[in-house]
Write a structure and sequence with these properties.
Order of helices and strands of chain B: HHEHEHEHHEHEHHE
Strand order of the largest sheet of chain A: 3-4-5-14-13-17
CATH superfamily of the largest domain in chain B: Aldolase class I
CATH class of the largest domain in chain B: Alpha Beta
Strand content of chain A: 5-15%
Shape of chain A: globular
Strand order of the largest sheet of chain B: 1-2-3-4-5-6
Helix content of chain B: 40-55%
Number of helices of chain A: 32
Distance between the termini of chain B: 22 Å
Largest sheet of chain B: 6 strands, parallel
Distance between the termini of chain A: 35 Å
Number of helices of chain B: 9
Radius of gyration of chain B: 18 Å
Oligomer: heterodimer
Largest sheet of chain A: 6 strands, mixed
CATH architecture of the largest domain in chain B: Alpha-Beta Barrel
Chain lengths: 785, 201
């Protein structure tokens, strides 16, 4: 890493996140005076207003330019989505983990201008006022979360279109679509006209935004006394004049074009998972090759530009989250997840020189943002996998590894064209989607062990005594495990029904009030359909419900089946009494449940059969339901930090877990329950038919000594290939000892830069709350294969 | 760790669970011990069944076994990992309580009929690490036509905890693990006999 990159990186690490009122001031001002406009035109003009007036920042030594806020890590808020209360701001400022500094000016702006205007009008307020009582009861009980209560649907990734076309080209495509509208035979023609006009306004807005950077760079160049920096600033001005108005001509312009687009998307709305360039190696390769071939680019220059680009991601913390959203996703990471390798659209091996170059960048930068993964196909060379394993072995959790061939199958199973599927990959933590063509919206996490708890309490939430579920019968009266499981299935369907009903309302609210005309330009086929991204414009529209705690659920079911129904060593009544008492005075029972029961993660069919049964149950109640955008519902399994929040509302569970402890995360086994090594975990996890979901998340923890030497790399690579041969979707590794983690817990100041894999992303260990730190420590540490 | 009684069927069920990992890595099953040849019929049956299922097999042995049993297993074994500790018979008797005549003879016979034999040399400081033993070992092993590789297994202390947990008195005197420098010296000495040398393995 050269001196420039070292400085930029360090500055990014040293800068503390704070709240900036810039965007909130501008959007509030705009809404106050915008008059009566259609929602989509209003959003387009709001975007134009932001892009045309926000402060322009070009930092010392930067080559890739542009910030979402007025300065790095000055994080905007989106009061039209979520208007923070003064109490929220106080919490954001004061909380120990993931704070945002809030100054008096910010408090005053909220008190005097934002809250009076937005209270009752922000999407958050509208959403809660439109939800049914049963939705609210289940939400408050912690049965599910709601992704759209503070942020907007995004959950999409870019394909290669901005490298082939500039926004002037997109604008002319939009003009053509406008000319082709059939006002006589298409009753939606006028609606489409407004959508397309809005997109056209957004094309102008992003071009203007870039021009403003060019102007600023020129101005700075004139004043610059250092000749080298002067030349750089002139070059920046040239780049920003050319992109994204036109298609990029070289490597530098390609990166800058993406970065403007990224800023556009995350400024227009507070999209979940920010935004992502997807297959960056594939998109950059033609520019890289051309530059190397004609001598205008060296590998070192390309690496430096990429590193400058990396810093830009790290400068944008996820906008401040409060309440349950802060609990389910307690991190500054905003989940832009760079994909490497995989397959080209024609099915050939997608690994190229830039794949290796970017792996080097990941290795050197060691930043939590952007996230990174390799898409590993059977067609990719082992060299590619092993280079990734070398970085993984360093212990900070990146890159994660996905099964590219399975992802194609998952997408094709959902009815997508195979070329679109191969252009797809992974975003966020483990989510599967067709890049540039699909809205694949995560709608909320579903607390599977909570639903089991409600079943065991005949519809009541034992934590509050409130009735939130169905009366499915007194469990002591169940004659067989099948009868019991049937009761669980009914409760599961009941809660999924409630969740889906809520989702369908929220989807309409976003379609009506919060269209995203800028994002719509970027995702096929919004332009050709003349429909907004949030209203079914994309070619594919998928909604996800994410199962959390399937390990805890499986082990609890296994316990009930094994001890209560099969062996009859414990009556249902005794079990319920032990759970109610949180095992106080029932330690012998707890020991039996914890130690003397088949558990998921050990390649033991007694437990794994119940995993399959649970997996099928959730699949059956969710998959294939229609959403309001012409698409379908599907399931995936990830948890971010939600397994900690969900655990905090679930009492003792039948697997021997104590009340309020975290649940299992992703599809990983219960922490410490897998005692037969990583191969057994992989065998167990692969018993789920993972083709039928849109992502599963498997965490594995290894002792560093196990991965030493070339043999360690070989063994890890074989393990990954074996899991993928069994149609596993994803695996990620922590390579660290529990000892180190405990030491970091005791002396955080000495371990400030310790990064660990959490659940689909990496984060600073010291930024995690105690419960999550303990959960990671409790995960089984594999000491042999 | 405390062991349990299993049938051939039980073992094969376990072995076959990991088929995908053998296929992917080119690995297979390693029978070790104790000394697996102390249960010759059980071992032979398992080896034969593994070969029927095209699973690669390796056997770790100390060589102090019946020659016919050892050689009889060879059609079903892909790789032998053969422990050699001390070449001097007197010294061998002193530390192990038995003569090494049969061990050396078995290795010679095995290497005549089987070309996948790796010799493993567990080095215990003060017992078998003097230069003299190492050069005798190098000389002997390099005289065997088909043995090309020797793996050095430096003494470690991982077993101490286990002894404690099971309440077994250790007869082994306190020994410091070898220094890294000494290990590479030993490796170099053995290498000078034309053998391929690995540390660990």
């Amino acid at each position: 890493m050269n001196e420039r990159v070292r400085k930029l990186r360090q500055a990014s690490l040293d800068t503390k996140p704070r709240i900036s009122v810039e965007r909130a001031e501008m959007i509030t001002e705009f809404y106050k005076h915008s008059g009566e406009l259609s929602a989509t035109i209003r959003r387009a003009l709001a975007f134009k207003h932001l892009m045309g007036n926000k402060a322009i920042f070009i930092g010392d030594g930067e080559l890739i330019v542009g910030e979402r806020g007025p300065l790095p890590k000055a994080t905007p808020t989106y009061p039209e989505l979520c208007c923070h209360s003064l109490e929220d701001l106080q919490i954001l400022n004061d909380r120990k983990k993931i704070p945002f500094a809030v100054d008096d000016q910010t408090l005053a702006a909220h008190r005097d201008r934002f809250i009076p205007f937005w209270r009752g009008r922000s999407m958050r307020d509208v959403i809660f006022s439109e939800m049914s009582e049963e939705w609210k009861s289940a939400y408050e009980a912690g049965v599910y979360t709601e992704f759209m209560e503070q942020r907007a649907p995004g959950h999409t990734v870019l394909d290669d279109k901005i490298y082939r076309k500039g926004f002037l080209d997109f604008k002319s495509d939009i003009e053509k679509a406008l000319q082709n509208l059939d006002y006589h035979d298409d009753p939606d023609a006028y609606k489409k006209q407004k959508e397309l006009e809005a997109m056209s306004i957004c094309c102008d807005a992003i071009v203007r935004f870039a021009e403003r950077h060019a102007e600023k760079a020129r101005e700075m160049a004139q004043r610059e006394s250092n000749p080298q920096r002067k030349r750089e600033l002139e070059r920046i001005a040239e780049v920003c004049t050319h992109v994204p108005a036109h298609a990029p001509r070289d490597f530098w312009e390609a990166l800058q074009a993406y970065w403007f687009v990224h800023l556009g998307v995350i400024t227009e709305l507070n999209t979940w998972d920010s935004f992502c360039p997807g297959h960056l190696d594939r998109h950059l390769y033609p520019f890289y090759k051309k530059g190397i071939d004609d001598g205008t680019l060296t590998r070192e220059q390309a690496q430096e530009l990429l590193q400058c680009f990396w810093v830009k991601f790290n400068n944008q913390p996820a906008p401040p989250k409060v309440g349950i959203t802060a609990e389910e996703s307690a991190t500054y990471t905003d989940f832009s997840n760079i994909n490497l390798g995989g397959l080209n659209p024609d099915g050939s091996d997608g690994v190229n020189d830039v794949s290796y170059l970017i792996l080097d960048v990941i290795d050197e930068m060691r930043l939590i943002q952007p996230s990174s993964n390799i898409q590993l196909s059977k067609k990719n060379p082992d060299r590619f996998l092993k280079r990734a394993c070398e970085i993984i072995r360093k212990g900070w959790g990146q890159p994660s590894i996905f099964n590219a061939d399975l992802i194609v199958e998952e997408l094709v199973r959902q009815g997508k064209a195979v070329e679109d599927a191969r252009s797809g990959g992974t975003s966020g933590c483990v989510e599967t989607g067709c890049f540039g063509k699909e809205a694949y919206i995560l709608t909320g996490y579903l607390n599977l062990p909570k639903i089991l708890e409600v079943t065991l309490n005949n519809g009541l939430d034992p934590r509050t005594g409130k009735k939130i579920g169905l009366a499915t019968g007194d469990p002591t009266s169940f004659e067989s495990f099948e009868v019991f499981f049937d009761a669980f299935y009914k409760q599961l369907r009941h809660f999924v029904d409630i969740k889906v009903r809520g989702n369908n309302v929220i989807e309409r609210l976003f379609a009506s009030y919060m269209p995203a005309p800028f994002l719509s330009i970027l995702i096929d086929d919004c332009v050709s359909k003349g429909r907004d991204y949030n209203d079914g414009g994309p070619r594919y529209n998928t909604d996800y419900i994410m199962g959390v705690g399937i390990g805890t659920l499986t082990d609890s079911l296994a316990t009930i089946k094994y001890h209560v129904f099969d062996k009859k060593q414990l009556s249902m009544k005794q079990l319920l009494a032990s759970l109610k008492a949180n095992f106080q005075g029932h330690e012998i029972v707890r020991q039996m449940l914890w130690n003397k029961t088949p558990k998921y993660g050990n390649d033991d069919d007694h437990a794994d059969e119940l995993l399959k049964k649970s997996f099928d149950a959730l699949y059956n109640v969710v998959s294939g339901r229609k959403n309001t955008k012409g698409g379908f519902y599907a399931v995936n399994y990830l948890s971010t930090t939600c397994h900690v929040y969900f655990g905090s509302v679930v009492g003792a569970t039948a697997d021997g877990r104590r009340a309020w402890d975290p649940l299992s995360e992703g599809v990983s086994p219960v922490q410490g329950a897998d005692t037969h090594g990583p191969t057994a975990v992989i065998k167990s996890a692969s018993k789920m038919d993972q083709i039928r979901v849109g992502g599963t998340l498997l965490n594995q923890k290894f002792s560093p000594s196990l991965l030493e030497g070339e043999v360690g790399i070989d063994n890890l690579a074989h393990l990954v290939r074996s899991y993928f041969r069994l149609d596993g979707h994803h695996v990620q590794m922590n390579v660290i000892t529990a000892e180190t983690l405990r030491a970091a817990q005791a002396n955080p100041e000495k371990y400030r830069d310790l990064i660990v894999r959490v659940a689909g992303y990496s984060d600073y260990f010291c930024d995690l709350n105690k419960a999550l730190q303990d959960e990671i420590i409790a995960r089984t540490e594999h000491k042999s294969f | 760790m405390a062991g349990k009684r299993v049938t051939v069927g039980d073992v094969m069920e376990l072995v076959e669970k990991d088929t995908v990992f053998y296929d992917e890595s080119g690995g297979g099953i390693t029978f070790s011990g104790g000394e697996p040849f102390t249960q010759p019929i059980f071992l032979q049956t398992l080896l034969r069944l593994c070969k029927e299922k095209r699973i690669r097999t390796a056997v770790e042995t100390c060589g102090f076994v019946n020659s016919a049993t050892l050689l009889g297993s060879s059609p079903y074994v892909d790789l032998y990992l053969y422990d050699l500790k001390v070449i001097d018979d007197e010294r061998h008797r002193k530390f192990t309580g038995v003569s090494n005549k049969a061990i050396l003879e078995n290795l010679r016979l095995l290497s005549d009929s089987h070309n996948q034999v790796i010799v493993r040399f567990p080095v215990i400081p003060g017992v078998n690490d003097p230069d003299e033993n190492i050069s005798q070992l190098g000389e002997f092993v390099s005289s065997l036509g088909s043995v090309k590789e020797i793996d050095i297994l430096p003494y470690h202390e991982l077993g101490i905890e286990k002894y404690k947990r099971f309440g077994i008195k250790r007869k082994m005197p306190e020994v410091q693990p070898l220094s890294a420098e000494r290990v590479s010296e030993i490796a170099e000495m053995l290498g000078s006999f034309g053998l391929s040398v690995k540390v660990g393995g």
